[in-house]
Design goal:
Radius of gyration: 38 Å
Structural class: mainly alpha
Number of domains: 2
Shape: elongated
Strand content: under 5%
Distance between the termini: 71 Å
Region (Disordered): 100-122
Low-confidence stretches: none
Largest sheet: none
Number of strands: 0
Number of helices: 6
């Protein structure tokens, strides 16, 4: 028998360990002796000499469970690889024509409102309250009529303006 892959090796180990355990746990003494003879293939001699019968069985069961767990992991990895291949096959790349438009120079302008700013504290408070009420009332109307795309655009614009400053 030639073992070509890790999966083949683990499959063979699972079968061999299961057969050995069944022989050791068999009521037939001849089968028990065969199982003990096969232990030399599965375990190093020093381990066999240091373990008692029950400990050997526990060790073999643990080794069997570990092999089954590794098989599940390998199957999961194979499944993920296949899904990745399917996703790669489904990917479609589209060329998009880029417009070579010259960017206009940017300039800053000050609002004239700042020149006409109220001078006293009372006038400033009143002006701020008027601006807030105007903004709040217009925002409420706008927010009720916004679509998801509009909200995304407003967030992008706000982010872009923060990045530029």
């Amino acid at each position: 028998e030639t073992i070509k892959t890790r999966k083949d090796w683990i499959d063979q180990e699972v079968v061999y360990i299961t057969n050995t355990l069944n022989k050791i746990l068999s009521p037939d003494e001849k089968l028990q002796q065969e199982g003990l003879d096969e232990l030399g293939y599965l375990l190093p001699i020093f381990l066999i000499n240091n373990l008692k019968g029950d400990e050997l069985i526990v060790y073999l069961k643990a080794k069997l469970e570990a092999a089954k767990l590794v098989m599940k992991i390998l199957e999961h990895e194979e499944k993920v690889k296949n899904e990745m291949k399917e996703d790669e096959e489904e990917e479609v790349f589209v060329d998009i024509a880029q417009e070579d438009a010259a960017e206009e120079p940017k300039h800053m302008a000050l609002d004239d409102e700042e020149d006409e700013a109220p001078r006293s504290i009372e006038e400033r408070v009143k002006a701020v309250q008027e601006k807030l009420s105007a903004v709040e009332s217009s925002d409420i109307v706008e927010e009720n009529n916004l679509s998801l795309g509009d909200i995304k655009n407003r967030l992008k614009d706000a982010t872009n303006s923060e990045d530029e400053s």
